[in-house]
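Question (not urgent): is this output format expected?
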Amino acid sequence: MPGNQASEPRRWLKKREFLAYYLVYKRFGGRASIGEIIGVLREYFTPRVAKNLFKRLRRVGLLKPLQPSGETYEVRSPEDYLDSLLRDYLERRRARGAHPPRRVQP
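Got this back:
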């Protein structure tokens, strides 16, 4: 299906996923290594949950590898993520013909 790439989210993150992402973003800002990310997640979650959260954030596109080896990741800003959610939502609404834009009367 077109537009269903890692950078184009299809659903809102679950509460745990979003808070884990926000924790990583606040702690590291723009970039971090895989060890740092898993380490901070393991402070609050079990090792299994931390690993699964990391994989989910990577799959959604909130963590993007900066190197082919995948050791260093860019942590995407929340604004970029919300912008892509909004863009995807509006495109889907427009595609199914839901309520054409109204003209504002002066």
